[in-house]
Fold:
Amino acid sequence: MVEELPKDIRSFIDGIEITEDGALIFKGRRFVFAPGVLFSVSLMGALVERFSRVLGPVGRRALVNYGRRLAKELESLGAKGVLEYYLSLEHLMGFGRNELVEFSESRVVYRVYGSLYGEETGAYFKMKGIEPTATCNSGYIVEGILNYFAEKEGKPLFTSEEVKCKAKGDEYCEFVVRRAA
Ligand SMILES: [Zn+2]
Structure:
């Protein structure tokens, strides 16, 4: 049985417990408050800048594996259920508001409004005079989720692409995750 997520960010914050040693715990998992700029630049901006704008294979694998772990843990929800759970969790944690636009056998499309990475990394690119580029990375986590189920079902795997990004001036970020033909 999977526990339901809080309905909004306020109730998520109210549900966080603080241990004597100062750890922030929500439903048995540790969370952390971090300035958005530190988080997005250390995790994305600097990596992208250093490794020619492509998240390295190690970083990418870590995100895919996070998605797979989540899918395994919440397997009873099914692919769409796990995806929706993940998108809600990202919203609660302050990464931006997600909207699932399409979920079909061959294609999944979702949008992120007010993306933390898009806004902060975009500002970082601007400050450093780097040409803006699509920079968000949740698509790899979604690949991990969908491909966990695709493998179980013996179907072709998905690959994600961020087709719109706030970091390059789009109104919102949009990911298209396609299954190989
Ligand atoms: Zn983006």
